[in-house]
Amino acid sequence: MTTSRTRLGAALFNGDHGRLAEEVARLVGAGLDFIHLDVFDGHFVPDLGFPPRTIAALRPLTKLPFEVHLGAHDPLRFVPHLVEAGADLILFHAESVSMLYEAIFTVRDQGVKVGVALGLGTPLTQLEPVIGLLDAVLLLARVTGEGAKGATFNPRVLPRLHAVDRLAKESNGRLGAPAESTGPNTLDLQVAGGIKREHVQALVAAGATALALGGGLYKAPDLAREVAEIRKLTEQGAIR
Q: What's the pLDDT at 184?
């Protein structure tokens, strides 16, 4: 059972790219907890995401955490630029590096929080040796970049959530993490990809501690009201 407050964020990639500053202001005003920023290289993911210079331009507009989903080949080359731009958490794909353990420390050495993202088909066994080193894990609920083609939320993410939540609780501390974040069961377990209202309670009950909401959120007539309604659903999911 999840009892802590579930953080809600929004993927800025789904907003109006011609009015990004206004979109950030809308997200802040709606009461969200973080902004999810997709950085794609056009190769690892068949789309291009935000370059560091865009993130740097948006950084002064809000104090909300900027949490970067880095979908790129050779992701470590982006890390110094993203840190300089103001990223608070960098989630790179386990599938994109050859030495996962070393990559985690490379990101942490830049002075930011570090997380690992996994696609729907990636075995969770990759997390077993390193989960105690992470601030966050991002599980994708659909194929990255396929939202524009109509791909929807895939419920197979739910048993994956359960498994990672259990793995985190069984891990022996957080060796290598900053002292202020050490302790059991402090992993931020995030989900992104096609999340709608009807998925929220099940996701939280399965162990999700953060949800990155996408295109459906921006379509809501009243953004703040939609966030408030989703937050109520997270509270209901936490007591299931």
A: 45
